[in-house]
């Protein structure tokens, strides 16, 4: 099985040119590009009161419920604005829609949240180049994206991705906000510090990108984070833009990695390094298979931890509700 | 057995009901016989008349009741089959508004099996193509601040995601542990040039759905079929040839591997699944 042929973009998804000054009106209640909608009499939905469960984002409590059912990991991408945090999550999901993932999609409790974040990278958005929307603080405290995957014969694993705005990490970097005041950071099973490739490719920004990453790692270290069981990684995003910028940019990246990785290994001796390109313009995506493998890698259990002896899933549930270190 | 057919508008649900009824009435199926009809089937007969004239079955052309109940014999037993045929809008609005329609929730709550329909040739079939796909034409450049000319709303959800969403939510709605799912790709005659098998089409175009069904097979055992109730594409305004086969002989179906099966096979498969589930229980 596996017929392959170029995907045909249906007419409904081919964007029509906008007239000068034309605006796109959004009537959420009836927004549809289904041209057959006019054929039938208007349908009046009759609400049953039974709500569909899938949400845009989950709260910590809702995420805990997933971990109580079966194993999973809390993933935090640590990086400032435009470093690629949401793009990584969205593209790891999207690969399952495209059939290019090394894992299999089991489900998601935030399917529409993932879709909303992928939308600006789709032709239906009307954009010429892919984009990811900026993450804003959710007033209801919903800050977790979710999907569940299965790798080979392994059981399904929940992945809970923190949607912490870049502004929060900037404040942490600036010592304006202690990292342990952000509960999700203390609960992370996987913590990746992002190096923005687009910034590193820009001679006017690259030193600040490198310096910011160092400062962020220092702030975490000084706050006693992450917890010992958490796995860490230094992830370079938008590698394609560094490569497109030429040898000097690549050389600067090499130098920056050599400087920062040892700092990260002061808090996690097994910290890894990975270069990624989620949406390469000059080449296809890279590093996402390796990233997913790392996300699914079972962390080592610290036998000296203070928590009582519980099955792994319960331990993670307990940490989500009462993270170690919070007063 | 309560079978619910779900799918968007123009996905082929009504056409399949017409084709199924037409085949049963005219004893076209070796594997299934019509014992009795319990509801008025005028709309199904009207649909058959359209097919005989080489015109597509459209809900606008016939008045469709909410449900049709038949008694059929298959696999050595008689089965009462109730098939609600709700408008494709019902599911779409439920998903867009994130609240189940009362009638649809009632249907699904009592369902013993589900037939999911998708018509890749329908205008409302969305694949969620990435930016930069061939054929896209847009003026100018993007705004550097990331302006999105067409902001996202639920109605833009691609078809594969809608299907997975529907199944995930179905899992929350029903009380039974196992719900067999027959997946029907309609108008498969239009796809034969490119895709030899329904299973291949599904894996190529809707890998998310394939993943979901395979990893959730314990709860949603599934089978995929390609169906052509018309048997071939109809040219507008062109009537039947002198040697035109009867609609029930013209219609055809393929299993996932591309082997020809009877048009009733998706339903027969659900009945066998239902019997197996009952036996195990």
End-to-end span of chain B in angstroms? 16 Å
Lateral arrangement of strands in the main beta sheet of chain A: 3-4-5-2-6-7-8
State the low-pLDDT regions of chain B, or none: 134-140
Inertia-based shape of chain B: globular
DSSP strand (E) fraction of chain B?
15-25%
Order of helices and strands of chain A: EHEHEHEEHHEHHEHHEHH
Shape of chain A: globular
Rg of chain B (CA only): 19 Å
C-alpha Rg of chain A (nearest Å)? 21 Å
Q: Describe the strand arrangement of the main beta sheet of chain B, using strand numbers.
A: 1-6-7-8-9-10
Describe this structure in words.
The complex is a heterodimer of chains A (327) and B (281). Chain A is an alpha/beta fold and 327 residues long. In chain A, 34% of the residues lie in helices and 14% in strands. In chain A, strands 3-4-5-2-6-7-8 form a seven-stranded mixed β-sheet, with helices on both faces. Chain A is globular. The model of chain A is unreliable at 1-40 and 321-327 (pLDDT under 50). With 281 residues, chain B is α/β, with parallel strands linked by helices. Helices cover 33% and strands 19% of the residues of chain B. In chain B, the strands form two sheets. Chain B has a six-stranded mixed β-sheet with strand order 1-6-7-8-9-10, with helices on both faces. Chain B has a three-stranded antiparallel β-sheet with strand order 2-3-4, with helices on one face. Chain B is globular. Chains A and B meet through strand 1, helix 2, strand 3 and helix 3 of A and helix 3, strand 5, helix 4, helix 5 and helix 6 of B.
Key traits:
heterodimer; A: 327 residues; alpha/beta; seven-stranded mixed sheet; 11 helices; disordered N terminus; disordered C terminus; B: 281 residues; six-stranded mixed sheet; three-stranded antiparallel sheet; 9 helices; globular
